[in-house]
Amino acid sequence: MAASPSLVAAVLAHSGRLEKEDLGTRIARLSRRVEELRGEVCNMINKKYNEFLPSMQSAEDLVSQVDSLSSNIDLLKSRIENEVTQHTLYLFYLTCIELFQFDRAIKDYSTALLEKKYVAAARHLEKARSSLKMLESRKGFELKVLKALGTELTVQTQNMLYHLGEEWRQMVLWKLPPSKEISSAETVMQTELHLRTMPLKEDQIAGPPVASVLQAFAVLGELHTRLKLFGQLLLKYILKPLISYPSLRPLLEEQPDTVILHFESAEPNLEHPSPMEVFGKITLVLEVLHKHLLNVSLDECGENDKDSRVGLAEMLGDMVWEEVSGCLIQECLVYSIPANSSKLEQYVEVIKSTEEFEKSLKNMGFLKGDATDLLKYARNVNSHFANKKCQDVIVAARKLMTSEIHNTVKITPDSSVAIPKLPDPGAGDNLKMQKASKILHNELINLENETKLSQQTFSLPTCHISVSVEKLMELAYHTLVEATTSTDQCCIQLFYCVRNIFHLFYDVVPIYHKENLQKLPQLAAIHHNNCMYIAHHLLTLGHQFRYCLTNILYDGAATFVDLVPGFRRLGLECFLAQMRVQKGELLERLSSARNFSNMDNEENYSAAKKAARQVLHQLKRLGKVWQDVLPVNIYCKAMGTLLNTALSEIINRITALEGAWKP
């Protein structure tokens, strides 16, 4: 069904009205929103302006402060520039002064050098050096001229040292042997030392020439080097040769302006010179040096300060004394130590001469302070005597131990070691001995009616020992006798030195003579007797000297009994080893007898006969070399044992044949 036109028109009109109403509403809303936004923007702008206003005021204040500070900086900069300019001018002024002083010092140095006023010239050089150091320390004024000034100063210093060296060579002239090594007294005799005693010309130097030259060396810092070289030559060519070569004698030759020191040779009375003689030679040389060269007091700093002055002799003494004293000890005092205690009292003269020697050196200024190592060594003679004695004893003992064993001497029960009479013990020890004697006497009285032992019960049986071993025991006894008359410390050293002798024998002899002891039965027997002989004396050696040694060794320490088992074992093992060798040879010879079987066979009979003869020959040879060497009882046991070995072997072989014959 179709709609009517009027209805359609009405609907369209209503729609138009609705559209008009909606547009107006919207416009009204937008207008209100615009007003709201405009209000918010205004509020925000007001707020930001309120916040910006204080910041702007602060910025304006900062700009004002910066402007004020900038003006202050400009003012300060202006002032600094003015002050820097003034300081620069001041530094420039100081530099000019230092340059002037350097130039003035060089000119003064040249004038003083021409006039040979060496000390003044050296001090002017040092002033120039000080000025140059000040110039080099100026920062910002690195002048190119400083390098040239340094070169000039170096040249002038070397020129000064050259002139001083020439003066020194004129005052101290060495004439040395062509060979640099001192090998003999003849080489040393070519040495001469020339010392000038006065200037070559009277107007040459204003002051004393030696003092002037040496003080100039001191100012330039070259004195120690120059004096050290002189000390080395003095040691090598004069002082040490005088100590080492007894034939050399210092000879002094005086001329109008020079003193010449050289040597002459004389036949020495002794292999090693006496300390008194050597001290006299050294003193003579040093007195000459002190008189003509070293009697000068110098200022090492070059500042004329009395407190800093030091004697030239003292400086030289500090450089050479250690080597001189060491050489005197090793080449002189060592050989003056007495060989026995009876001569120790005479050594007092050596101590006195050493004291006088050092005193004279102190008077000349070579030494300072208390006693040196030289005097301490001389005063410690007891210790050195003990050390030397022990060393000599050990050397002599070792020489005896390494000598031939086959040179023998016969020992009987009546034999004894020849030693000096022992000194009487002290009163306290004498009382102890008297008490011991009374106890022993009472015990003997109680045994009078009993069976008495033979006087030879504890004696060593008759045998042969090496001559060297007999001398070794004599050396031990004499050393202990020496200990009885020595100081406590020396006594202890000598006692233990004797013990060391026997320890040395135990270690040396079996090794040194090992091959001969194994091959030669006679030497094995002699070595056996030697060990038993030493053990026999060791049993009573300590007791014999017990009351004569120092109290430190009295209470049981002075004994050698602990060494006895070792020596007995040493001798027994050597002889038993030789017995085993002889047994082996006997059995080896009998092994060629073909078991003594089929003696009706000519070859078997000859072999058995040859073996028997070889056995008899061996036994006869052993009997010949052992019979007069071994004690009778040991000889009989040894020969009986070997004979028994041979017979037992023969019987065993023959009885073995009997068993083989049985059906």
TrEMBL record:
ZW10 C-terminal helical domain location: 610-658
Q: Which UniProt keywords apply?
A: Cell cycle, Cell division, Centromere, Chromosome, Coiled coil, Cytoplasm, Kinetochore, Mitosis
Q: Which family does it belong to?
A: Belongs to the ZW10 family.
| Coiled-coil ranges from the UniProt annotation | 20-79
Question: Start and end of every Centromere/kinetochore protein zw10 middle domain?
Answer: 164-401
Tell me which residues make up the Centromere/kinetochore protein zw10 N-terminal domain: 30-86
Locate the Centromere/kinetochore protein zw10 C-terminal domain: which residues?
458-588
Q: Which Gene3D superfamilies match?
A: 1.10.357.150
Q: Tell me the compartments it is located in.
A: Chromosome, Centromere, Kinetochore; Cytoplasm
The entry's protein name is Zw10 kinetochore protein
UniProt GO BP: cell division; endoplasmic reticulum to Golgi vesicle-mediated transport; mitotic spindle assembly checkpoint signaling
Indicate the principal place this protein occupies in or around the cell.
nucleus
A GO-annotated cellular component:
RZZ complex
